[in-house]
# Entry
Amino acid sequence: MTLPISKLPTLLVSSTLLLGLAAEVAAQTDTPTFYADALPVFEKNCVACHQPEGPDVGGISAPMSLMAFDQAKIWAPLIKNALVTGYMPPWGAHDRHRGEFKGERYIGEQEKELLIAWVDGGALEGNPSDAVQVSNQTQAGGTVLPDSGWWIGDPDLVVQFDRPLYVPDEVEDWQPTIEMPVPEGAHTEPRWVSKAELDPGGPWVHHIVSSHMGVGVPGRGPFTYPAGWGVLMPEDPFITVNMHYHKNPGEGTAVTDMTRAGFVFYEDGDVIDHVVETNLLPHRGWTIPAGDPNFEVNNSYDIDEDIYLLSMGPHMHYRGKAMRYDLEYPDGEIETLLWVPDYDFNWQFLYEYEVPKFVPAGSKMHMSWWFDNSKENRFNPDHTKDVVYGPATTDEMANARIYYAPTKTRGIVVGDPIPADVLSKARLAEDTRRARTELLDLSKDDLTWLTEDSP
Ligand code: HEC
# Structure
């Protein structure tokens, strides 16, 4: 496809390109080139992930560097495809939410068209001396992984499995609960978490649930709470995590997982005004008929106190298609808080407000999920089956997790005694997680547990 003159972007990054196309000159010199035209756009929108040794983004890494011409050229047809379909850069919130959520990833229309024109023009190299130095720009947004290897900087506490967990060949779907030992003496009193990061061992970690770290799923970054917002982490020799592994079964597919978690704590004297709470807001009790291309599910939830909404995290599985959160205010006015028109199971974002959103008592949260159980959905594990809510990846879910806190400020000074209600709530969260499932004893994790009746 060549760029039709009527669709000429008004604001082109490169003036040489503009002149070239306007004159309808197809001469090679005027066709966009990698160094003069494409590279600056890649640097701005893509290289945070697409760089040599690309960072681990929630267990997955980008397959190529877009800073190198030879790689960009090989991938050119797929780059065009990823841009046309909106698959890259990865971000789920509709354009209408521009400016609302942290770490949003939108590529400008002109930038997109420029990259497509570069591909259509033959993915030319151009002259390396045309490259503009924009690396400061990429670093500005905190898109470069710090030397510590953690997005949250230098953690105050790191916990990990006792030893690597073996996930054998036959496993397709497996959900063990595991206790990560806290290094001795490293966490002897309750601390307030200001940042937390789960570092899954690989892309076969489908998700991780824990009490203090939120939920780790593919593509989701660390939790960074706003100043004065925190989660209490009671002292405990262990941190319990519900792991969920999902991969193709079969010979040679076994992996070993060494998932880690890192925490940054508040310091004595800091003030916690908002103790973060979360609610999964799951909706069950529906059946998606086999083959149905557009099955809709709805649910509502009453907000009974004034809260600040911090973030929203839609969750469905492979049949998930779209999701929406609509807030109905007490006066009846409705506002769409989040519209994810093209839900992608591989990229489950947490949509965190730049500024926590005030939601008055008496409001109602309306949630809608759409599913595609037809064979047109290429991720569908089986379009001939009715599907209900269930824990396996091949089941479905309709969750609408929210993180929030009451607006009433607590004024808890870090280092002072912790209010009893806060402490008991935090302990209960961890105890419940522990009580709910049988723990996998990692010290017994060797090949002997791998018998005929393994998962
Ligand atoms: C947040 C990190 C991130 C950003 C930003 C990002 N990508 Fe990716 N990209 C990935 C990861 C991870 C993969 C591999 C997993 C996948 O395909 O989902 C990938 C895969 C791709 C693929 C291969 C897709 C396929 O069909 O196999 C292309 C092409 C691509 N990215 C292009 C781009 C372009 C162009 C941009 C910028 C406009 C961009 N990406 C921005 C992380 C990112």
